[in-house]
Amino acid sequence: MSSFLVSGGRTLTGETVCQGSKNSSLPILAACILNEHTVTLENIPEISDVEATLRILTFLGCKIRREGARVAVDASGVTGSDIPDGLMREMRSSVIFLGALLARTGRAALSAPGGCEIGLRPIDLHLEAMEKLGASVTDAAGRIECTAPQGLRGAVIRLSFPSVGATENIMISAALAAGQTRIHNAAREPEISDLADFLNAMGARVSGAGGSTVIVDGVKKLHGAAHSVIPDRIAGATLLAAGAVTGGRVRVKKLIPAHLEPVLDILERAGCDTEIRSDSVTLSAPAALKSVKTVRTMPYPGFPTDIQPPVTAVLCRAQGASVVIETIFENRYKYVGELTRFGAKIRVDGRVAVVEGVPRLYGANVLTPDLRGGAALTLAALAAEGESRIEDVRHIDRGYESLEHTLAALSADIRRID
Ligand code: UD1
User: Fold this and answer.
1) What are the b/e assignments for 295-310, b being 16+ CB within 10 Å?
2) Each residue of 161-171: pLDDT tens digit?
3) Distance (Å, rounded) from C-alpha 252 to C-alpha 267?
4) Beta strand residue intervals within 310-385, DSSP E
5) Is the CB of 125 under 6 A from ligand 1?
6) Catalytic: 116?
7) pTM of the model
């Protein structure tokens, strides 16, 4: 079990390059299954969720070639349509293979992902959508099987909530369906537009992505393509938050600043100064951070739930009280108990956290509960006086490309021990 050892209290300064997006890479890699030719992807981050996705692709019969951030997927030999339990359990978002397998092979069988660290995360919207597209769905003892031996057919699907994963699964499966699919109340996250761009590069016909109605006109076959995934707005925002909490000045390059707007807005309200260029953001922290009246997580273009924990860590150092409201996941405050070990003052009542800023945080030994909660604890440790140990950082490795090296290059005193 790896841990981070952090000697806190250093001001972060310097510049860094943002990694490619985890949440774009996973559905895009799954969508490669649709194609019987080779697809080349750039800017794929070296994180364990990507490794888990590549293991599933290999298991299903794909040939993978990886050189750093470039991954070539040859899905001509896909034979399997079953994903075993063990591989499913490695990564909850493997449910994204449902639509891809169904469209390619007429069948998909996988275990229900079940609850995870941050909430129940049901997949009812995914399954209802597959039924609308003409699949038969059975769920026996947690093993879900979807079949569509005659292929899928386009449908009008109204999502009761703009689920990111469900929107992606529908787009992927509808790409090869007969006729047109319209997704109403679709998720509008930048990763949805990135997936649409990738599908279109392979010859699919997807329009409207980024808006709340996405239209997919099914095609019979796709062709080989090359695509570079977008920068990771959550990883980029985490690094800017690290600059904010340590009173530093951090420049993150290779970003799409528009994707970070709701986060930059909150950091500016906290007193940070931001300098926005076409593909970089520089954040300069004030001498003393200010509290923020309310931070409410919302679907895009609202404030992202994934950056709620790191921003809460920043607000721990602000003067005054801030209110954080988590509206997306019901169990996203697990890290708060650990954060209080640094001396943070936070009260949680259901979906609301009241953060009373404190002048100082102190080094502590804490346990990482989940990916973004782990990032929040790392930020608190950077800002704390003295030594901290962040235990079980494999959660952090799921989504951040060697976070300790990135932070050390910004003058943090952090190292990994096994
Ligand atoms: C994706 C992101 C995750 C991010 C989340 C919200 C990936 C790999 N993960 O997760 O980092 O935090 O979007 O921006 O892209 N829900 C249902 N039924 C369903 C599907 C979802 O009730 O069938 C609920 C979930 O329990 C949750 C909410 O809808 O409360 C949002 O989930 P969703 O947008 O689907 O998130 P994910 O795609 O799982």
Assistant:
1) bebebbeebbbbbbbb
2) 999 999 999 99
3) 15
4) 321-325, 345-349, 352-356, 365-367
5) yes
6) yes
7) 0.97
